[in-house]
Amino acid sequence: MNVIFIDDDEDLNFLQELMCSRSKSIKHFFIASSALQTLDYLQETNIKPDIIFVDINMPIMTGFGFIEAFEKKFSSQFPETQLYVVSSSIREYDRIRALKYESVKGFLLKPLTEEKLEEIYSQYVKS
Q1: What total of structural domains would you count in the chain?
Q2: How many Cα atoms are found within 13 Å in the side-chain-facing hemisphere of 4?
Q3: Which of 52, 66, 71, 103 could form a Cys-Cys staple with 4, CB 3.0–4.6 A?
Q4: What is the CA radius of gyration of the chain?
Q5: How far is Cα 64 from Cα 112, in angstroms, rounded to an integer?
Q6: CATH of the domain at 55
Q7: Helix ranges restricted to H, 1-127
Q8: pLDDT digits (tens, 9 = 90+) for 12-71
Q9: How far apart are CA 3 and CA 121, in angstroms?
Q10: DSSP H or E run through 107
């Protein structure tokens, strides 16, 4: 599985890196501190992401802005890529808004655990 994490929280990114390095399911991972960095990465790489986890509240471009850009530029290139919003927001509005996007498969509260990551992976394999 090829996974991308997008979050501006460096401490959380460190924990996600540890989690990915211990996972038997993840072949390749990319951790970005901004949505723009991820859009550049998707433009330049030949690695197809299976799952992208994106935070909502980030400077310059929000997670919602990333999802919109992804759907415009990359959804035809990566039609099987699943996006998950991972946020500390408990606002129902954010969850509803996130799930309206075609590419978004779920809304998760932080932090993402190894168990949740494996559960999502097993669902991805079944789809």
Answers
A1: 1
A2: 26
A3: 52
A4: 13
A5: 19
A6: 3.40.50.2300
A7: 10-22, 35-44, 63-73, 92-99, 114-126
A8: 889 888 888 888 888 899 999 999 999 999 999 989 999 999 999 999 999 999 999 999
A9: 10
A10: strand 104-109
